């Protein structure tokens, strides 16, 4: 066999698809949801990936997220997370709560120019807020032991939300979810007392 047998020319070809001198490797990824419908999180994750490809940037926080960034008790004297932890009898947890809240605040700042990341964070903060009020607040009101409350937070609030993150494009950790909870405490959206 001479080298001429392997020479390929593309002169005169009209390309309407893929054209190569040799192999064309094409891979396609399909994401399916069990019932044929995407969940809210799946749609946001797909949109996030598209947004990152286009490198779009946003200079403001979306309204839903801004709601959680603002303190609910804006007309009252602002009391920090530390004081709120003390009011709830959680003095031993103050340092950890402050670290977790700061972790979330830094991650939020990192993604502040992504509208989709903001929507994901707003969705997660909303879920934490609602789940806390439904599952944890009743335990607090009957003075359940802190161990029982903490176990319920992990089981009924944080774990289901962590699972809902699915592909987790923002690499949200369990510690960051706990930081979101403390962020909500700090802004008076949820209470320990």
Helical content class: 40-55%
List low-confidence stretches. 27-33
The best one-word shape is: elongated
Quickly count the domains: 1
Class by SSE composition:
mainly alpha
In whole angstroms, how far apart are the ends?
85 Å
Number of strands: 0
Radius of gyration: 24 Å
> What is the string of SSEs from the N terminus onward?
HHHHHHH
Provide mean pLDDT, rounded: 80
Binned strand content:
under 5%
Main sheet attributes: strand count, strand direction, barrel closure: none
What is the count of DSSP helices, taking H or I runs of 4+ residues? 7
Short structural summary:
The protein has 193 residues and is mainly α. 54% of the residues lie in helices and 0% in strands.
Describe this structure as you would to a colleague.
It comes from Corallococcus soli. InterPro entries: ABC-3C_CTD9. Pfam families: CTD9 (PF20285). There is one protein chain. By secondary structure, the chain is an all-alpha fold. The chain has one domain. It is 54% helix and 0% strand. The chain is built from seven helices and no strands. The protein has helices spanning 40-54, 63-69, 81-87, 94-110, 115-141, 146-164, 174-186. Helix 5 crosses helix 7. The protein is elongated and about 85 Å long. The termini are far apart. Mean pLDDT is 80; it is low at 27-33.
Blueprint (SSEs and pairs):
Blueprint: H1 40-54, H2 63-69, H3 81-87, H4 94-110, H5 115-141, H6 146-164, H7 174-186
Helix pairs in contact: 1-5, 2-5, 3-4, 4-7, 5-6, 5-7
Domain ABC-three component systems C-terminal: 80-192
Protein name: ABC-three component systems C-terminal domain-containing protein
Pfam families: CTD9
């Amino acid at each position: 066999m001479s080298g001429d047998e392997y020479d390929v020319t593309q002169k005169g070809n009209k390309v309407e698809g893929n054209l190569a001198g040799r192999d064309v490797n094409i891979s396609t990824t399909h994401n399916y949801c069990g019932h044929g419908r995407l969940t809210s999180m799946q749609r946001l994750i797909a949109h996030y990936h598209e947004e990152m490809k286009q490198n779009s940037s946003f200079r403001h926080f979306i309204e839903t997220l801004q709601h959680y960034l603002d303190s609910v008790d804006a007309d009252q004297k602002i009391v920090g997370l530390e004081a709120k932890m003390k009011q709830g009898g959680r003095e031993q947890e103050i340092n950890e709560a402050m670290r977790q809240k700061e972790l979330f605040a830094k991650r939020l700042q990192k993604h502040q120019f992504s509208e989709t990341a903001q929507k994901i964070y707003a969705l997660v903060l909303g879920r934490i807020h609602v789940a806390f009020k439904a599952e944890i607040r009743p335990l607090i009101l009957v003075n359940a032991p802190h161990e029982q409350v903490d176990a319920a937070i992990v089981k009924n609030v944080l774990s289901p939300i962590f699972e809902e993150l699915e592909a987790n494009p923002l690499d949200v950790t369990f510690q960051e979810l706990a930081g979101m909870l403390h962020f909500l405490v700090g802004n008076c959206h949820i209470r320990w007392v």
